[in-house]
């Protein structure tokens, strides 16, 4: 190869020459003529120098250090990258020419050396602004390479040129114009070449922090793709990744002490802002504002936007987030694969979750924790990491690697777990289990590492390597990923879902009502000044409502993304299978097949010591998706394809097992999911909360779900009795607002029971359970709870109706209304609204109780429970009391304007009540008839008539009249009700006559110490007090203590006093003869 050809090659690569040439004017970048160096070389060589390999080093020293050109359009770093790119191009075109290959390779080696000197040693002279920017210039080149427009890069770098002597925006634009996209291979070779250079780690840290700062203000609509791709490229190189995770701003040294919000601050945690890119705005004070605004461009003014436009915006945002989370997953996966960064990446994940443990609380300070969007992205990435083992097949590595001992190990999530309620273990039991696990882990750590060995107290030892360290490093990555994902979902997407359905949803409802009320009240304001102030307040309220509705839609956009929902449901399917294996002791997914009830007792501590949220979050997700996007539950192409039958079996099993799930609240929440899955026809009129939240339709999800309740043996053979017991258990629950919560949950359970009652196989199982208990036990407590609830709900409804009537009267009385201050009027309107909501809830629950009594009294077995001596009077008390208020003089208290607003229909309630009377009366008479001659007579009519507090025969006649006019009673029902009324009246007359005969001088020992009535079946309590058996049995249904000593009491402790019973019987005979 001739010297002039080699010289031309180097001149093209480095844009330099020793002498001027006519073609220099057309070259880009401009050619720098090194005339001073040429003169020096002429003096040394005695002839004109030729640019060859031997002189390259001196050429670059002159070009970059000794005599850099003034006002050259490319700064040194950009010049070197451009030279590298040209050298690579020459190498590509060289073909088989080994001389050109060697020359181009030599050029690249020198370029990389001088790039290191420029970036890490400060030897190459740069303008002050770029000297300060330093290695961040590599970031600029990466961003250009990955598609960031020059105008966007100019805006990004302008602040760096804003200081004295920086040149401002014009200088920034000039810098960007001279910058080159990162050449392929340059960063890789630079990292390898300078791997041992201390400056490399500082350079990588500086780059990621600046990238983090830039991306912190970019929304999904702003295309953060170039920044994420640049980050991915940077961290794919181990030496750069190692320096990045060693940076002080990788994560605060103690995230438990630091605020959880620190993870989204670029200066505190550079990776956090990348995870914070989300359609859900972070609206706490001082948070970085992401532009363009998702709310402003997509959702503000939602009611005025075309549905198609909103759907397109949602689809676009979901596609953008798919790309973003995909790139984040690539970054994290790359870091986990590298030996030198894996531990730091795991530490980051654990610390981020630990630092935000506050989000697991019912109430928390938004300013002290990471935003919803951030944690949803963290969870989405972790779900992708779990992807390879989400399959529940027996061959999955999951079953050998996941150890419940992770929860007790005291490592990555120690403080998070310590604050969590356990599935069933008491605090002392959990502490003892944790100590045993840690002791075993310590012994494992001191022993030689083995792939397998003796089983631990918690699971397969193959799930661990050595001891469990603070970073969870003693457990297999599959184990770590599983538990990290469960916790990320807990404080991330699941917390967002419950917030959306709870406080956030309620706030929107409240503000919407406030706007409606304010608009109505505007019509009543005549004072111009007051009207202007009211108009301003109304405008503010409307703006707030608009913003909250837009934010609500942003949440739904993220949380109902089909891919995310599919991953979440697949994860919880795996969680259900894993918990089942712990409960049954059958390893792997075969635990489902091995399920049978009752579960083994005592419950394994590896199960009972797991956090309660493992199951509760599963419920929350299924509830959220069932209510907001039930189509995603379908196995069709538009659904998530999840096996809901496995959830149904799992939930039925846990509801039946209080030793495994201690909280009645949680077990009732399981039933809430099943209620939403009840099949329902389009023409069916739903009741309770299902009226607006149950999956509807005869095809799609509803058709698929129909089989859940009718096929699997666990469900068919156990669900009805399990729900009956659960109805009783939720009388006492530990959650906030539990008293009112129980009525909602009982309505839920009643809806399921109503459906099961209509299925012959479920009804048969239910009736057999009642017979097996001899009409006592759970069926008796169930009936008692129904009657307790009916009485309480009626009393509360009456109070609320009275308050509503008073408010209505005040608002219609113009004199009183205008005399009130505006604040008093507002308060009255708000109170009226609140009372109306409470009344609606009470009426819904009362209707549910009456419906339940309606259908259970269709069968003799379930009605026998109500006809027992200690139950029949309870039944008549509730029915007669309710009837009195529906048709007696007190019914005037039930009158309010627009009762349909509260779902209050007195005639339908009356029809339901009368149906219960008729069902019980019919079965009572059939039982007596079948018992044969000499058996006890029917008891119900006599009990109804002996009610001195509420029974009046005219109430039955009035009920007949009301129902007859409304067409709500048949002729046969009318005849039966008249007959019941007559028989009850006859019994009432007999009871009055008996009272007269007995007189008032009843011996005190004959009177029940509870009700002060003459005893028929006296029994002695452990406290020594004698009471009538039906009265104490009724007491024990609600309170299992001796009413006189308050000590625990059971029915087995009652001692019949046969002598006293005989004396009372003799005394009765003497009085009646």
TrEMBL record:
Which regions are flagged for Low complexity bias?
A: 458-467
Q: Which terms are listed as keywords in the entry?
A: Cytoplasm, Nucleus, Transferase, Ubl conjugation pathway
Pathway assigned in UniProt: Protein modification; protein ubiquitination
List all membrane-crossing ranges.
none
InterPro entries assigned to the protein according to its UniProt record, in alphabetical order: Ub_conjug_fac_E4_core, UBE4, Ubox_domain, Znf_RING/FYVE/PHD
| Span of domain U-box | 1001-1073
Q: Where does the source fall among the domains of life?
A: Eukaryota
Subcellular compartments:
Cytoplasm; Nucleus
Q: Which PANTHER family match?
A: UBIQUITIN CONJUGATION FACTOR E4 B (PTHR13931:SF2), UBIQUITINATION FACTOR E4 (PTHR13931)
Q: Which family does it belong to?
A: Belongs to the ubiquitin conjugation factor E4 family.
Name recorded for this polypeptide: U-box domain-containing protein
């Amino acid at each position: 190869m001739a010297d002039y050809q080699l010289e031309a090659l180097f001149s093209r690569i480095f844009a330099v020459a020793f002498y001027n040439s006519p073609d220099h004017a057309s070259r880009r970048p401009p050619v720098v003529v090194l005339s001073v160096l040429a003169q020096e070389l002429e003096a040394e060589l005695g002839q004109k120098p030729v640019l060859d390999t031997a002189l390259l080093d001196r050429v670059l020293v002159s070009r970059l250090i000794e005599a850099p050109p003034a006002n050259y359009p490319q700064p040194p770093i950009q010049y070197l990258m451009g030279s590298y790119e040209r050298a690579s191009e020459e190498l590509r075109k060289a073909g088989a020419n080994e001389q050109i290959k060697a020359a181009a390779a030599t050029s690249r080696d020198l370029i990389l050396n001088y790039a290191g000197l420029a970036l890490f040693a400060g030897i190459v002279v740069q303008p002050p602004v770029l000297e300060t920017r330093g290695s961040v210039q590599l970031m600029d080149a990466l961003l250009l390479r990955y598609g960031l427009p020059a105008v966007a890069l100019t805006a990004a770098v302008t602040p760096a040129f804003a200081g004295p002597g920086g040149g401002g925006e014009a200088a920034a634009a000039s810098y960007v114009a001279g910058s080159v996209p990162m050449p392929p291979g340059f960063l890789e070779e630079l990292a390898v070449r300078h791997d041992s250079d201390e400056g490399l780690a500082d350079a990588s840290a500086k780059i990621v922090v600046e990238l983090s700062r830039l991306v912190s203000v970019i929304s999904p609509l702003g295309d953060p793709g170039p920044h994420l791709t640049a980050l991915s490229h940077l961290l794919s190189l181990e030496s750069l990744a190692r320096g990045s995770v060693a940076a002080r701003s990788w994560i605060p040294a103690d995230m438990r002490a630091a605020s959880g919000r620190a993870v989204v601050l670029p200066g505190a945690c550079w990776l956090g802002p990348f995870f914070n890119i989300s359609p859900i705005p972070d609206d706490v004070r001082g948070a970085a504002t992401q532009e363009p605004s998702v709310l402003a461009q997509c959702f503000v003014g939602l009611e005025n936007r075309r549905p198609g436009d909103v759907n397109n915006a949602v689809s676009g945002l979901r596609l953008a987030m798919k790309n973003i989370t995909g790139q984040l997953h690539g970054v994290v996966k790359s870091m986990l694969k590298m030996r030198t960064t894996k531990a730091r990446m795991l530490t980051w994940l654990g610390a981020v979750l630990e630092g935000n443990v506050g989000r697991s609380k019912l109430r928390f300070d938004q300013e002290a924790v990471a935003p919803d969007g951030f944690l949803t992205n963290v969870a989405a990435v972790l779900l992708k990491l779990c992807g390879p083992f989400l399959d529940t097949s027996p061959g999955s590595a999951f079953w050998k690697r996941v150890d419940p001992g992770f929860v007790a190990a005291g490592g990555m999530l120690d403080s998070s777990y310590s604050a969590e309620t356990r599935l069933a273990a008491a605090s002392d039991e959990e502490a003892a289990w944790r100590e045993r696990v840690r002791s075993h882990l310590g012994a494992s750590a001191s022993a030689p590492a083995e792939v397998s060995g003796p089983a631990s107290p918690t699971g397969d030892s193959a799930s661990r390597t050595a001891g469990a360290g603070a970073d969870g490093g003693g457990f297999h990555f599959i184990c770590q990923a599983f538990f990290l994902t469960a916790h990320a979902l807990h404080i991330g997407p699941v917390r967002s879902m419950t917030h959306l359905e709870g406080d956030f949803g309620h706030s929107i409802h409240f503000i919407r009502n406030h706007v409606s009320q304010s608009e109505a009240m505007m019509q009543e304001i005549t004072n111009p000044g007051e009207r202007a102030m009211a108009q301003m307040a109304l405008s503010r309220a409307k703006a707030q409502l608009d913003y909250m509705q837009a934010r609500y839609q942003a949440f739904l956009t993220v949380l109902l993304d089909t891919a995310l929902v599919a991953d979440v449901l697949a994860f919880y399917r795996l969680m259900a299978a894993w918990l089942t294996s712990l409960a049954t002791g059958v390893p792997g997914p075969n635990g489902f097949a091995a399920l049978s009830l009752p579960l083994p007792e005592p419950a394994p501590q590896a199960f009972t010591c797991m956090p309660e949220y493992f199951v509760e979050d599963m419920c929350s997700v299924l509830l959220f998706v069932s209510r907001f996007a039930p189509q995603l539950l379908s196995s069709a192409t538009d659904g998530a394809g999840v096996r809901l039958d496995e959830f149904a079996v799992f939930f039925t099993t846990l509801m039946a097992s209080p030793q495994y799930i201690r909280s009645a609240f949680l077990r009732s929440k399981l039933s809430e999911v099943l209620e939403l899955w009840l099949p329902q026809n389009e023409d069916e009129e739903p009741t309770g909360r299902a009226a607006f939240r149950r999956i509807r339709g005869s095809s799609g999800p509803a058709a698929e779900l129909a089989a859940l309740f009718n096929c699997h043996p666990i469900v068919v053979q156990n669900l009805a009795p399990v729900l009956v017991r659960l109805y009783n258990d939720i009388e006492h629950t530990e959650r906030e607002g539990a008293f009112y919560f129980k009525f909602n949950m009982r309505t839920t359970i009643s809806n399921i029971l109503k459906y099961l009652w209509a299925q012959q196989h479920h009804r048969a199982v239910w009736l057999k359970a009642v017979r097996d208990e001899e009409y006592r036990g759970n069926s008796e407590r169930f009936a008692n709870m129904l009657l307790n609830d009916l009485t309480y709900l009626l009393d509360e409804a009456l109070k609320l109706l009275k308050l509503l009537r008073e408010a209505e009267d005040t608002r219609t009385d113009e004199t009183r209304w205008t005399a009130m201050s505006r604040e008093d009027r507002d308060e009255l309107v708000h109170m009226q609204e609140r009372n109306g909501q409470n009344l609606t809830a009470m009426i819904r629950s009362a209707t549910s109780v009456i419906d339940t009594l309606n259908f259970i009294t269709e069968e003799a077995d379930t009605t026998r429970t109500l006809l027992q001596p200690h139950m029949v009077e309870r039944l008549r008390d509730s029915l007669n009391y309710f009837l009195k208020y529906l048709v007696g003089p007190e019914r005037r208290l039930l009158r309010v304007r627009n009762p349909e607003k509260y779902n209050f229909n007195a005639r339908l309630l009356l029809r339901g009540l009368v149906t219960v009377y008729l069902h019980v009366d019919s079965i009572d008479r059939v039982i007596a008839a079948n018992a044969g001659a000499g058996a006890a007579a029917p008891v119900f009519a006599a009990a109804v008539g002996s009610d001195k507090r509420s029974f009046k025969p005219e109430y039955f006649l009035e009920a007949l009249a009301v129902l007859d006019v409304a067409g709500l009673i048949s002729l046969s029902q009318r005849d039966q009700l008249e007959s019941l009324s007559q028989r009850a009246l006859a019994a009432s007359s007999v009871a009055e006559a008996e009272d007269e005969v007995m007189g008032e001088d009843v011996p005190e020992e004959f009177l029940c110490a509870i009700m002060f009535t003459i005893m028929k079946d006296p029994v002695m309590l452990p406290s020594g007090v004698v009471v009538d058996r039906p009265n104490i049995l009724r007491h024990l249904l609600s309170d299992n203590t001796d009413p006189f000593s308050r000590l625990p009491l059971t029915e087995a402790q009652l001692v019949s006093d046969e002598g006293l019973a005989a004396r009372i019987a003799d005394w009765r005979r003497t009085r009646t003869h």
